[in-house]
Write a structure and sequence with these properties.
The structure holds two protein chains of two kinds. By secondary structure, chain A is mostly helical. Helices cover about 80% and strands about 0% of the residues of chain A. Chain A contains eight helices and no strands. Chain A has helices spanning about 5-40, 50-65, 65-75, 85-110, 115-125, 130-160, 170-180, 185-215. The longest helix of chain A is centred in the N-terminal third of the chain and has 36 residues, at about 5-40. Chain A starts with 6 loop residues before the first helix and ends with a helix. In chain B, a hairpin with a 2-residue loop joins strand 4 and strand 5 (about 75-80). Chain B is built from nine helices and ten strands. Chain B starts with 12 loop residues before the first strand and ends with a helix. In chain B, helix 3 runs parallel beside helix 5, helix 4 (about 125-140) crosses helix 5 (about 155-170) and helix 5 runs parallel beside helix 6. By secondary structure, chain B is of the alpha/beta class. Chain B has helices spanning about 55-60, 85-95, 110-125, 125-140, 155-170, 185-200, 215-220, 235-240, 245-255; strands at about 15-25, 25-40, 40-45, 70-75, 75-80, 95-100, 175-180, 205-210, 220-225, 230-235. Classes of the chains: A mainly alpha, B alpha/beta. The interface between A and B is medium-sized, with 22 and 27 residues.
């Protein structure tokens, strides 16, 4: 059996692919989570129109598969004159999905902050913006962090969808090695292990984060 | 409403509530309540649960917005029936400190930050200035040694004293207390009452919703008895405690005193 024996020769290309996958995941999260926070805050707006609009955006974002969003950005948008590279399309699509999902996670976190604290801040004369910034968001984020890490793991796995837009990430690299060597089993197995090598330690982190963040709450 | 009678040599008004009304759907919480509080006076609000005491108190700094009525605190006036700006609200709250039954400290900030944060954001003090003032106030409530602790490491009585320091840090001219000792053991409540007595002795204008009859009797200058969303009677605490006019007041006082 040469399942394992060829692994060393696959490694350089696969590691390069893993680098791209990690990059896409980190960029998507770095753009998507702040977006999710804005949506979460907007969903609590006093203006009903704003609220309805945001809930609509979030529901559509959560209801549409990430793969479809990705295809729209890469294959659909050029029809309207906007052409994105496969990297840009992947990041934008996954960031949009991240924003939609994390807005719900963060909204739950923000709502977990007791109303009495918001009242106390108001009674102290703090305006709504300061109350959000110094009281509600720091605590809401802490509550949300374990779920956010869980979601980050899912988004990292979802970067494999970018192989459909020819982005040279981990799965694309494995696939192209497979198509030249016909050793699909071997190379895909290795690729799967490489995904797991990131996701499993990341999920250990969730448990530790939960414990640490429970302090002072 | 008939105008309040002006006694000679009375101090100026700190708070004036005119015909405050509040409904939650079908349920009436406050029925055109009017109340005045003079500078330096301690007013105690007592009465059975559901009388509207806390709601009335929360109307003073508009944590609760009345349906109709006018609120004047230290010259800032808000007509609840009309639209007012956040600037009007900020001006009114600028002079009012509040202490809650459940303390409502910020659990993610240490004690010093709890007392300093609003000074920095609202008064524009630097962190250093705010911390100096905070430490003075913590010293005053006997908790300077807790400055670097988190609220969760403090007892209920300590948390409430920190909450008092936090409110005082903004130099309010009026302090509102919403059942400040109700969540505390009777013994622990005493340390909070001691701080409040000191504050009263220094001439702070205070409005206190309380079930502490001894405090209401000994410390307050003016006693207000509420029931069913209205003021039953008000006057000097000693007069009301010894000879209440209203049968409902008599009934209430008997229930809380003779147990």
């Amino acid at each position: 059996m040469n399942i394992f024996t060829d692994w060393p020769s696959y490694l350089p290309e696969l590691l390069a692919g893993l680098g791209v996958s990690v990059q896409v995941a980190l960029l998507s999260l770095a753009i998507g989570i702040p977006g999710g926070l804005l949506l979460a805050i907007g969903a609590g707006s006093k203006n009903k129109l704003v609220r309805v609009l945001i809930i609509g955006v979030v529901e559509i974002g959560r209801g549409t598969p990430a793969l479809v969003v990705l295809q729209i950005f890469y294959f659909g948008l050029p029809a309207s004159g906007l052409t994105l590279t496969s990297m840009a399309a992947s990041v934008v699509a996954l960031a949009a999905t991240t924003a939609a999902y994390t807005s719900e996670i963060l909204r739950g976190g923000l709502q977990a902050v007791p109303q009495g604290e918001t009242e106390a801040a108001g009674a102290l004369g703090m305006n709504r913006k300061d109350t959000l910034r110094f009281i509600v968001i720091p605590q809401g984020f802490r509550v949300a962090i374990p779920s956010l890490i869980g979601f980050a793991i899912l988004i990292f796995q979802a970067t494999s969808l970018a192989y459909t837009v020819a982005l040279p990430e981990l799965l694309s690299q494995a696939y192209s090695i497979g198509s030249t060597t016909f050793n699909y089993l071997s190379v895909l197995l290795l690729a799967g292990l490489m995904y797991a090598a990131i996701t499993i330690p990341a999920s250990w982190l969730t448990g530790r984060a939960e414990k640490r963040l429970a302090q002072h709450l | 409403m008939p105008p309040m009678q002006e006694k000679p040599l009375t101090k100026p008004l700190a708070i004036r509530l005119d015909s405050i009304a509040k409904n939650y759907g079908e349920h009436t919480v406050l029925k055109n309540v009017s109340l005045t509080v003079r500078e330096g006076e301690v007013t105690a609000l007592i009465g059975p649960s559901g009388a509207g005491k806390s709601t009335l108190l929360r109307c003073i700094n508009l944590l609760e917005r009345p349906d109709t009525g006018c609120i004047t605190v230290e010259g800032s006036r808000i007509d609840a029936g009309t639209n007012f700006t956040t600037k009007d609200l900020a001006a009114l709250r600028r002079n009012v400190g509040m202490v809650f039954q459940s303390f409502n400290l910020f659990p993610h900030l240490n004690v010093l930050r709890n007392v300093s944060i609003a000074q920095e954001r609202v008064l524009g003090r630097t962190r250093k200035e705010a911390d100096v003032r905070s430490l003075q106030l913590l010293e005053r409530v006997g908790l300077a040694d807790k400055a670097k602790q988190y609220p969760s490491r403090c007892s209920g009585g300590q948390q409430q004293r920190i909450a008092i320091a936090r409110a005082l840090a903004l130099d309010p001219r009026v302090m509102l207390f919403d059942e400040p000792t109700s969540a505390l053991d009777p013994e622990v409540g005493l340390e909070v009452l001691a701080v409040m007595k000191e504050l009263a002795a220094e001439g702070m204008t205070m409005v206190v919703v309380t079930h502490e009859m001894q405090f209401a009797r000994d410390v307050s200058d003016h006693l207000v008895v509420m029931a069913n969303g209205a003021i039953l009677e008000e006057g000097h605490p000693e007069d009301i405690f010894t000879d209440p006019v209203q049968p409902r007041t008599r009934e209430f006082l008997r229930a809380v005193l003779e147990r």
